[in-house]
C-alpha cells in the first residue's frame, strides 16, 4: 500500500482535501493505511498501485457500478463513441433516445434534462422547481449535494453562529443571506413537515430522498404528496442514489407516489458520468424561463453509457439480483453478530446495505474491521453496495473472514477492554449524518 499512501500524502499538498469526493478520502476508511488509488478494476476486483488485488465488499465506486466494474456491453458502447467522436458542434442523438426511455419508464413524466453529476442534477431541479412554483423557500430531507442552496440549511440564527443541522457539512463560504431559504425536516415525521408548510407560505419546494435508512411509514409519502397538491408546492424525489436498485427506474414506483420532478444518477451509467432530471411538462418547461446550460452536458459518452446500462439492467433484472443478495448479506451479518453477542443494526435499502454495532467503541471497531479485512484481501467497512458480481460464493468467503474479526470484537466488548491496542493507525472519521 506504500505507493497509494505516498501519493495521497502528495495529493494533500496539491488538492484541497486530497480528493474530489469526501467519501473517497482515506481518512473515512483507514487513515494512513488505505490503498487510496487504483490501477485497474474489473467486476468486483480492484488492483492498487502496488499491484495488490482486493475484492470490493464496500461501496463499489460510491454506488455507481451495479453491473460491476468494466461491464463489457457498457464499455463496448462507450468505446464505439470514442471511435465515432464524443463531441461536436452538433448534438448527440442518443440524448433524445435516453430521454424517451426514461419517460416511458415513468408514466407521470414528460420531459428530461441531463447533467453529469448528482450535485448538478440537484441544482437544476431546484432552479426549475423554484421557477415553476414562483416561491423561493425549499424544505429538504436527505443529502442533496454541495451547492449553496442546500448547504444553507446549516446556517442558523443560534447566537449568530453556524449550526450543524447536517453535522459534518460546514457552511463556510455559503452567503449568510441564504439563511432560512432551505429548511431541513426529519424523515417519517409528517407532523413536522406539515407545520413547516403551514408556517412558511413562501415555501415552493419539498425535496427528499424516497428512502435511505428506513422505509416510509404507511401514508407518509402520500401525506407529503397531498400537502404539495394543496399548497402549490413542487415535490422532488432525489433518486440519485436509490434509482434502479429496487425497481427498473425510481424507488418511488414501488410505493406508488408520483413526484413532480425526480433525479437519477450513480447507477444510471454504470460508472460513466450521467445524471437525469425527469419531470412533468408544466413544471419542466419553467426551465425555459431561466438559464440552465453547460458545455459538457452535451457530450456523448454519458447518454450512450446510460442506454447500454439500461439495456443490460433490463436483460439481467439487476435490481432484483442486488436486492436479493443484499437481503442474504444482512442475514449473515445478523447471524455472526448474534453468535458473538453483538447488538448489530442493519439499515438502508438491501442493495445499499450497512450495519452498525451498538457500542461506544463503534468507530474503533469499524476501523478494526477495515484494517483486518484489508489484510485478508477485501476492501470492506460497514457498508456493502451490491452489484451483480456479489454472488453467494463471494458473500460466503467475505463472511468467513468477517467471522473471526467479529469474534475478536465480541471478546473486547464483553470484557470492556479497549481494542485500540490492535489498531495500527488512527481511528476512521465519522463523516456526516444524513437527515433520514
Oligomer category: single chain
- State Rg: 22 Å
In CATH's first tier, which class of the largest domain applies?
Alpha Beta
Distance from N terminus to C terminus (CA atoms, Å) equals: 35 Å
Q: Quick one: biggest sheet?
A: 7 strands, mixed
Tally of individual helices = 14
CATH superfamily of the largest domain: Type I PLP-dependent aspartate aminotransferase-like (Major domain)
Q: Which fold name is given in CATH as the topology of the largest domain?
A: Aspartate Aminotransferase, domain 2
Element string (H = helix, E = strand): HEEEHHHEHEHEHEHEHEEHHHEEHEEH
What characteristic shape results from the CA principal axes? globular
Overall tally of structural domains = 2
Percentage of residues in strands: 5-15%
Which strand order does the major sheet show?
4-10-9-8-7-5-6
